[in-house]
Design a protein that fits this description.
alpha+beta, 5-stranded antiparallel sheet, 3-stranded antiparallel sheet, binds zinc ion
Length: 242
């Protein structure tokens, strides 16, 4: 059920609104089949504009992520099908919807890269599971990934402590390592005492926050036990703020 939020700030733009929408930190359609029904899905206050903007980015991201996931991985159950359906005109709910799916399909097909053209420094998918059949690739927009990583970090911070990571005060940097496990961030997070937030197989967030400033910290975000993203939250210097 959608939560109701009013008379508070949007967690994304930090502006105050009388009426707000409920935004799922991990998008509703990204939960794989088999996610326990009775688990409360994280919802946060968002203004309509931010919610719509992020919703569009998330749809685009889900299609591209879905095309690169391993169909044998149980944690992605249903996600690949949703990506394929989103590109299938036959699944359209109206003629306009079918046309949109057709256009999206054309765009993606045009963008498919043969193995020799995939950039050697490509980091997504940086899967935890080996996917032998991986032959072709589609690129994922870095800006979209950045928006998404920030959204997750802002969201889980609000869920954990109702604190806002407003852009004028905090800098959130996304980091993607080529190797999902053998990187300084994951090693450090797993070595130290860390907090874990997870729902089913869809999402797991591990973080270490600073003792003296719990809004700052380092994050590891794992999607569908497959894709690993990292982020760091820092307080902007007073000069930057000014
Ligand atoms: Zn907003």
């Amino acid at each position: 059920m959608a939560k109701k939020f009013s008379n508070t700030k949007c967690i994304h733009c930090c502006n105050y609104f009388k009426e707000l929408t409920s935004d799922h930190v991990f998008p509703k359609s990204w939960y794989p089949n088999g996610t326990p029904e009775d688990v409360e899905k994280w919802q946060v206050p968002s203004c309509k504009e931010c919610n719509n903007k992020l919703g569009k980015i998330e749809n685009e991201l889900r299609i591209r992520f879905g095309l690169g996931l391993d169909p044998n991985n149980k944690a992605v159950c249903g996600i690949i099908k949703k990506s394929l359906d989103a590109l299938n005109p036959k699944k359209g709910k109206s003629s306009k919807d079918s046309t949109n799916r057709k256009i999206k399909r054309k765009i993606i097909i045009k963008e498919i890269l043969p193995p020799e053209e995939i950039p050697s420094n490509s980091v997504i998918p940086n899967r935890l599971v080996d996917f032998e059949n991986y032959k072709e690739g589609v690129l994922i927009d870095e800006e979209h990934l950045n928006f998404f990583t920030k959204k997750i970090i802002k969201g889980i911070t609000w869920i954990a402590s109702e604190e806002y990571l407003c852009d004028y005060k905090y800098d959130i940097e996304m980091l993607i390592f080529q190797h999902p496990e053998d990187n300084t961030f994951s090693v450090e997070i797993n070595r130290c005492k860390h907090e874990v937030y997870s729902i089913g197989d869809g999402i797991k967030i591990s973080r270490i926050v600073a003792a003296e400033m719990p809004t700052c910290g380092i994050y590891e975000i794992i999607l569908w036990k497959s894709i690993v993203l990292h982020g760091v939250v820092r307080l902007r210097s007073t000069q930057e703020v000014a």
